[in-house]
Design a protein that fits this description.
Nucleotidyltransferase, domain 5, 5-stranded mixed β-sheet, alpha/beta
Amino acid sequence: MIYLDIETYSQQKEPSFEDKVIAIEYKEVDGKSELLKEWESDEKTILSKFYKYLKEKLRIERSVMIIGFNLLLFDRDFLAVRLYFHTVDELANIFNNFKKIYWKDLRYCLLPFNKFSFVGLSAEELARKLGIRMPKYSNKDIRSFYDNREYEKIVEHVESDMKFLSDLSFKMNRDLSTVVESLTK
C-alpha cells in the first residue's frame, strides 16, 4: 500500500490539464517515502521517476494499492495526462499500468456515509470533525507559494497532507463507526 499526494501549479482558479505537477509525495505503509520536487529538476523528471517507481512495484507485486484523497476525481487522471503529455510512455501503456492499480480514494469511501454528497468532505472539514490534524495551508495557497519561490511552505503543505491522509486512513480502518457518526451529526 502506498499513500500518494500530488501538488499542481495552476494559472486558473480551477485546475486544467495544462497545469503542471510541482510535487509528488509517495509513502509506502512500511515507511519508505519520497518527495519529488519539480523546482529541483523539472516536471518530466519527477513524473518519470514516479512512473518508474510504480512500474517496478507492479513488476514485483503484480498488484498495488494507492491510497489518496480525491484520487479518482483528480490525481489519477491528471497524472496519466501529464505522463502522456511529456511522452514518458505511450497512452496504452499508462492505461494498462494504471488499471493494475487499486486506487483507494478515502473521500469517495466516505460518500455513502455523507448522503453521497461531497459537501462536508473537504480535508479541512474532515480533520475538524474527526479530531485529526488538518493540512497546513490551503491548496489555494500553493500558486502564491510557487510564484514567490516559497518552496519550503509547499513542502510543509505536502508533508501535512500526507500526515492527514495517513491519519484519516488509520481512523477509517480502526474506528469507522466513529467516522460515520461524525459525518451524520
